[in-house]
Structures are given as structure tokens and as C-alpha cells.
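Could you please consider the sequence and fold following this short note?
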Amino acid sequence: MPHFKDVQSQFMAHIKDPAHIAPPSDIEPRRMAIYSELFFNNIEGFVASAFPVLKSLYDENDWLALVRQFFIAHDCKTPYFLEISQEFIEYLSNDYQITDKDPIFMLELAHYEWVELDISIRDEDESYTTFDPDILDLAPLYLSSLAWSLSYQFPVHIISPKYQPQIAPDEPSYIIVFRDCEDEVGFIAINGMTALMLQLINENPSISFDSLCIKLQNQVPSFSLDIIKQGAVSVLSALTEQGVLVTKK
């Protein structure tokens, strides 16, 4: 009689790759087909819901083949379905070999869509609070726990089946993904200077407005401190109103 662990291993191997791995001999083929389809459909459903734009760039067979390859090759380390999207990102980043059927911006687009999902389910840090932009120069500044400042070679926020750039633009795309007070996830396209300000805030939590402007002027000495302060007030006030910048309670 086969050892239970051997049967279990063969059972799982067949569910992952029913086209190439034989099922255990003592399980009815019809039942195995049901198990296999159920498992795969669950995985495909979670991946598709997490990466809808990426899925829209494939025909059905190529998409199913990609998810099947993930299902077969990747050893998921989490039992939680909500974390399958992160496992999919890890697979694409570390193990998957991009083919000519994949868009050149595949990894960046997948990461961007994963960030949107992560922000949508992330727990809010209740030690942070919004504040009136009028006291921007008095409040210690933090990047909200519900915001993520990102940069990509490709403009992933506008990619669609009708817009698929084949060459990276000369300038990267800087984007803030954030969740607003109504728990809606959105994005803001920003420029390099704003991205640098947010990087400095993230690297120096509780930084003051004046200290931030001094650090920024050290990074871009071609601008005077007064010019930097004028621009920073406008940009940071807008981000404060949107809840991207917060302070501590």
C-alpha cells in the first residue's frame, strides 16, 4: 500500500499539472478532474481580480497558460488567498522568464496593480492624523501609511489594451497610489521634484517643512531656498488636503 504522504504528494502534483502528472490510482478520475478544476479556478480568479489590466493584455489561452505556469512552478508560502497576488509578483520577479507573448512592461504593471490592492486592504496607522495645510510649516511631516510614492520606467497608470508602449519613455513616471478618507484607492501623477520631496519625508519621518526645504535645496542647488519653499508650499498643501501627507496625533 502506498504511503499516505506519497499519495498526498501525487495528488497535489496532479492538481497543479493534470496534463503531465498522473493522478493517484485509487481516486476516481472524475473526482480528480473536479478537484483540479476547482483549485485552478480559485487561483486564476484571485490572480485575475488582482491584475485586471495585465490580464486584459493577453488572449484567454495565453493568460491561462501564464497562471497555470505560476500554479505549477511557484511554491506559495502563504495559506491566505489575499496574499496570492504578492506570491504572483514574487514569481514574476524571481522565477519567470518573460516571453515574446508578454508585454515589455509586464513586471512594472503587475507591481503597480499589486500596490493598488495592497493599499486597498492595508490597515491604517491610527497614530497618524490629517491636518490643516495652513499649519504646514508647524506640523511634523509623515507620508501616510495609506500612500505609496513610486517610480516606473513605463507609464503603468495609463496602460490599457489600446495603449501598450514598446519603448520606455525618456523620463520615468512618478506616481502616488493612496487611499482617501472614503476608502477609495486612487493615484496622482507627480513630477520628479515632488517624488524627491516625498522620498525625503519618508526617509526622515517627522521632518519639519523648513528642514525638508533645506534638504531639498542641498539636492538641487540650482534652485534658491526661497524658490523651493514657494513650490513646496503649493505641492505639499495639495497632498495634505488629499491625505497623502499626515502628522502624528
